[in-house]
Amino acid sequence: MGESMKTTDWKSDPSTLRREAPSLLQLAKDSPDTLIVTPSNPFYTSIRQEYNEYNRQTEPLAIALPKSIDQLRQAVIYCSGHKPPIPMTIRGGGHDPYGRTVVSTAAQCDLRFLKWIKILESKPSSTATDKVVALGPGITAIEMHRALDGTGLSAATGWVGSVGMVGWSCGGGYGLSSGAWGMGVDNILGAKVMQADGRIIDTRDDPDLLWAMRGAGQGNFGIVVELRVRARPKPRYIAGILVFSLQHAVQVLSGFQSLVDEGLPTSFGGEMTINTTDELGPAINIFFTWICDSHSDTHAADGIKFKGKLLQRLQVAPLVDTVGETSILAFHETLSQGIEEPQHGYWDMASLTLAHLTPEVIGIIMRNPAPTGGASAILVHHVHGRAVQPDVTASWSHRGQHYVVSPCAIAPLDASPRQKQVTREWTRVIYSEILQNGQALPKGYWSMSRPQDCNATRFYGTDTVRRLTKLKRKLDPSNAFPFGLPRFNTQESQDERAYL
Fold first, then answer.
1. Which Pfam families match (predicted)?
2. Which of 128, 194, 296, 333 has its CA 20 to 30 A from that of 497?
3. Is the peptide bond before 486 cis (omega within 30 degrees of 0)?
4. Residue partners of 120: CB distance under 8 A and separation at least 6
């Protein structure tokens, strides 16, 4: 976020605010240390840091970057108390492929300066070695891994380091450790949430709020100013990448599915990307991970043994095999190389959930290799083990064993109109063919689904939506936070649909 620049230079001057965001001029006077940036500011582009060029069609009213909870409180009270109220969107530490925190009529509260991590007491109901870790709302997955590495602790994350921990955890949270440690929602132990009047509610005092945060807490009920998650002793870890040619997709994907049908070990994590590179052509990449139950050599050997079983079942030798003993931090650093700041370009993405990788789905993938000349890929998440166990303390209810299949087309910044069209068509062909084939499940993953494909009742169920709506009306009666996710009280705005 341009850390080499002096942040004191970022602020838009009063005359600029008066011209571009007059409703925020008084906030700048009342809270002079809060950074407020408008589109004509020379530092605006680097601060906005939008990596999907399609989202450039919409600009926020202004971006406010509080450096403390007190500054955030001042901004929230000001916007909610303004006549008329100024709608707020909340940007955490990460990113959203659809730019849903950018709304032309709203002020964006950017929380990326609010980064901290504190190790608290052990949770009484957990094992003696588990710890509670408090996270600031601006911290990302790789930042948390780096901070915990020297403490002997590890915590669940997704596999892209630039993802924000609050959004990932509260929105479901698929990841390589989900078999052993559960999804992101399963690791939330508590939170502090700022209301429109500046008060901070702790989930210790509101069990319904904790239930909502575990699956539907991305800005709906206020601003998360602290998230408490479970951290575990750092395990021995077997991890690496297995790369196969897409021409062997039938053997690789059907072989993987056969192991799923038999029941995968909870220690195993195996998510995939399917892409095209200049060196290897169309390829399937399996991110193999194994969380050892203990530090014994036996458990580490079990991981290597299971890799052998996996390769035997796939019936094809990998083009690349980097699997070996490593650390969680080292492997996530490897995965984050080149994508710690996401690939900048023209993104188009869709998402479906599937119960199985059927021959029909495999055929669709084989017929539609990812376009070249960008960073397009099909992302495949899979959940089993702890992640599929029902949990009535979480609003996240998608607990059956399933895959999330997300074609993600990325055309480079210098792409021609034709190249952009080709990449977008690729996404939509895969999405529509799988959908028309009748393979998709009704529930979905909001964070990776296009706004027009999101339906709260279908994703969460009628009873859950009713309970969430009731809590929303209780905690945010004036709807000061109308742009949270999931949307269960309003339709997506025209701004969200603009580029789709």
1. FAD_binding_4
2. 194
3. yes
4. 131, 132, 133, 134, 228
